[in-house]
N-acetyl-gamma-glutamyl-phosphate reductase (Eubacterium maltosivorans), 1384 residues
Amino acid sequence: MIKASVIGGTGYAGQELLRILYRHPEVEVVSVGSRSFAGQPLKDIYRNYENVTDALCETADMNELVEKSDVIFMALPHGIASKQVTGEVLKKTKIIDLGADFRLKDVDIYEQWYKVNHYNKDLLKEAVYGLCELHREDIRGARLLSNPGCYTTCSILSLAPLLKNHLVDPQSIIIDAKSGVTGAGRSSDTAFSYCEVNESIKAYKVGSHRHTPEIEQELGLLSGTDLKLLFTPHLTPMNRGILALCYASLTSDMDEEGLRQVYRDFYRDEYFVRLTEDKLPETKWVKGSNYCDIGLKVDKRTNRVIVVGAIDNLVKGAAGQAVQNMNLMFGFDEKTGIDFITDFPV
Amino acid sequence: MIKASVIGGTGYAGQELLRILYRHPEVEVVSVGSRSFAGQPLKDIYRNYENVTDALCETADMNELVEKSDVIFMALPHGIASKQVTGEVLKKTKIIDLGADFRLKDVDIYEQWYKVNHYNKDLLKEAVYGLCELHREDIRGARLLSNPGCYTTCSILSLAPLLKNHLVDPQSIIIDAKSGVTGAGRSSDTAFSYCEVNESIKAYKVGSHRHTPEIEQELGLLSGTDLKLLFTPHLTPMNRGILALCYASLTSDMDEEGLRQVYRDFYRDEYFVRLTEDKLPETKWVKGSNYCDIGLKVDKRTNRVIVVGAIDNLVKGAAGQAVQNMNLMFGFDEKTGIDFITDFPV
Amino acid sequence: MIKASVIGGTGYAGQELLRILYRHPEVEVVSVGSRSFAGQPLKDIYRNYENVTDALCETADMNELVEKSDVIFMALPHGIASKQVTGEVLKKTKIIDLGADFRLKDVDIYEQWYKVNHYNKDLLKEAVYGLCELHREDIRGARLLSNPGCYTTCSILSLAPLLKNHLVDPQSIIIDAKSGVTGAGRSSDTAFSYCEVNESIKAYKVGSHRHTPEIEQELGLLSGTDLKLLFTPHLTPMNRGILALCYASLTSDMDEEGLRQVYRDFYRDEYFVRLTEDKLPETKWVKGSNYCDIGLKVDKRTNRVIVVGAIDNLVKGAAGQAVQNMNLMFGFDEKTGIDFITDFPV
Amino acid sequence: MIKASVIGGTGYAGQELLRILYRHPEVEVVSVGSRSFAGQPLKDIYRNYENVTDALCETADMNELVEKSDVIFMALPHGIASKQVTGEVLKKTKIIDLGADFRLKDVDIYEQWYKVNHYNKDLLKEAVYGLCELHREDIRGARLLSNPGCYTTCSILSLAPLLKNHLVDPQSIIIDAKSGVTGAGRSSDTAFSYCEVNESIKAYKVGSHRHTPEIEQELGLLSGTDLKLLFTPHLTPMNRGILALCYASLTSDMDEEGLRQVYRDFYRDEYFVRLTEDKLPETKWVKGSNYCDIGLKVDKRTNRVIVVGAIDNLVKGAAGQAVQNMNLMFGFDEKTGIDFITDFPV
């Protein structure tokens, strides 16, 4: 039984994390952090916690938290964790950061895309990028775990086997991703009000979304190339789910079955990656679960492969993967507390 | 060709009104009022106006507006129109108020339910309640037209024939109404954000919604009784539409066919009321139109009648009815510019 | 560890049941029954079962099933279970019927509302009505458990304390209930296609829904009266959830706090009933959970109480309650395998 | 005043067409064709026609229809119009075919993609492809008008200026398009039932959708090249709207402003094409209108242009464009009867 704290527990990702942690057999939640709702019972903000916990939201001091926590989850806007996580903190507790501050190894790229300074650059080297399927061994020993972004998780897992095996032109990649509205966080912006979002779809931040360099970093590592790709996200009228269509030009003449075998080999032992074989993923089949579903098609007419990935943005794309990382970091079975069957239709 | 101004043109009701007015063959829009967006082109706020108008939003002075307008529509929160509409104003132009300030004849009831003072009580007597199907002749001569509320329109039209003909116990009425989310207006409140509203239904202001006294006033007039009813609204996960289920205890032993004949007689010449006979209304069939669909069932087991009414809250429940009133006030054909066929599925 | 079979496992309720059973620590699923999909892997029909089970759907013979099952769940259209469940069957295994065949004690009422003959009337007396909060002790010893309907569960739980304590006129009850679309089952009817249901709400079977006599039976038992009530269901554009507004005339002068205390006393030890106190239930807070949330308002103007109940129709309204019953029947902790925290926003 | 018939009037596109025609000032509808609903009043199938028309659906004989119609609209599955439209028919009336049979000039490509024989190949040459913005002069004189597909219209209009001006590599095009559910037609397939479609997104027919050769034909004509592109459609949980993201590699070093000027020049006189300048299109702003909104971004990092197009699939993508074509063919003002302002939020 370990003691866990969550800073930023009342955003959608933080709340999802709490939902998982409160049912995790190896975890006791010792602090629910929320600046906006400090002093209020969590169950008054999210009424699904009625009968679950009487915990009050608090704005705990980092020094206190490190004393009482075996692990601290941070679910905060970028720029805050890079201030709060220091070498001193890491001596006393483990950190799992759901934000972006420790994802990019190159601080210049971070500062260029996020338009803020990084306050603990020296920790970037130590920080482990928590995509379990790619960095499991490093994760086990990590003190500072940087949990990947939602679009990122889906995109990298979809493309990794192709890049690793040099089957596509790394400079040809286009990722066209569609996200549910929870991806935008809990918002009071009119632009995210029901009537403005319902019954419409739009692309946003075309070519300029901050998950781009993160995907490039990881795919670059896999392929051994410095690559540039085009990433386009969409706001889709549904609560949850990411569907990523990844387009790339084939450099081999492998057919669909050949490529699928590459994926089967690559993900052979991965519990949370499901290959959909001759079908393609749909977000409804992963909703509420920690699975990443992946399928692919080859378009012989244009010699391209289209890989389709689907995740729940708040589970495998955030809270579920954070707990998967925690499980690894503390030596629990990787599936503990996150082996959900998607509830359907939900 | 008359000149029309709209004050509060960038709320959902105001915008719907502009959409109708810009295609009305007898109307020229001379001012689009909006305090929030003053100085900005309407088409920058609502991009459906691209190619339609280059009008800028403005916060026009009432004195200026009365000079250049044959009619001024006011689509404002309650408490403002009661200040701005004066006897002087009415000497120079006609007013159609989509708000609540001039709907209740009894100023005490107004002040009790709305918790504000009324600043021009003397005009309450002159104000005509703009439910065309009930007050057509008075509307034709009106200078100050008070446009009914959305729930109100649907509820009164659904029950009017029963009350007028003394077929139900006036003290037995329960109205259980469901509204789309546009009914709450254009909002930046987190409570109306997509993820909080989507895939859920709730009742609100049970027994305390401000449309209650308005319904009581009109049904009281029809029945010649001072009645009290219970009104319950719901927030339904859809953009538009109101469905009102009106329950009442029968005082006669009329069967369904008998009651339907009463409705046919009552609404014989009403273009915008459609009786659904052996089917019941659904909001999809009235969406985008100025129709009110009405159907009914008798429950012999409990000796009750259930009348079901459906309207589009922004059309017959607001902007469409406002234009229907304008048509009457200026001697145009009542259907001019609002004879829409519901677009389906939309 | 008990062995469970599900007949009718590919409808929405059956599938929800399987989802729960496959994660229940005391259950092994030994047969997934489906006439429509016999011979096909469950995971091909519901792709959320990928990585969960390779079970094939089958149309098992009842004689075989009773031999290998400690409990058989039946999730079938009405009229089938009444043929298949016999005294012989009950000697060998326990039955939990999610259908309607054994809910009504009076076979005449059953045959009148369901328009079919009942083939094992003699078992009606033995059958236990599985509303755990009302019949827990009988459930523990049951061989034939009749699981309540979805609307029924929500309505009875909402009204039980009032009827039991004679606080309302039993003949004054009106229940206006709104259900998500899963309530209609998995359907290929155009009337339930996305575009026909989306963005619209309608009432159906007003005064004639088959859950009516079931609610009357249970409330009649509680109040000791033969009562008739009016029940109206609605199809709401969302996947899951039931919200029931229950209107009744007060016979005492108790205020809201007094009535709430009655509810607190009545449900003191009930884990799966949550009282929302000064707030009202919303379906989003119970979705995916086995909770029934209940709140109330008093309308002094008309001397009525309005009780609002909310459940997930597929969980507390079907599969969750079925497992709650199973837990009781086999002596497990009542919460085992169904103690879900609502996932939000989902 | 011309006489128009519609064959296939009860599909979603046919119905949308009727809605427009019944309010078109120059048109009298003389026949509503429907094999499925022959003999039934249109208003019984689509209740929005109550108060609009008492027309009965009929399965009129083509010989009769040509005698009484100035124009016949055909909204049928592929393979039927190619049988029914003959040289004899065209001598007597004008045909506007909303189906696919006369869109592809190369009959081999038609038969290869549609897997049926074409029965009147000799008419393919005469048939005019009814994308008004590209073929206006030919349309004016057409007897046989082939109305473009929905995805097609949006994709071609989005890319035409680039191909015409040789600004992109014609072999580099990827179109990732998202459609509302009406695009699948009125369906009783479980796969399109509310609960299966709601709250999920999926790609389908990746690289194999039949609109692909149609887009290639028109873009090939514009560019003077035989090009192959990759087209991927998605089913999006909303009723209406298409959003197409068109990716292509730039062959010039033009920046965004330069490219936008190309679009402004190309569409200078086009009423129904709106350029969104520094914003990007969203489907909500075109819903219910005949507009095609187009915007673009340049991604300098990968030297690609992303053009975003949005239309209402049932209006500009089907019925609205059909009427736009009719207006041209009969010498009416091109906007007559289709100059709708998008109703918002709807």
Observations:
- The longest strand of chain A covers residues 242-249.
- Chain A touches chain D through 46 residues (CB under 8 Å).
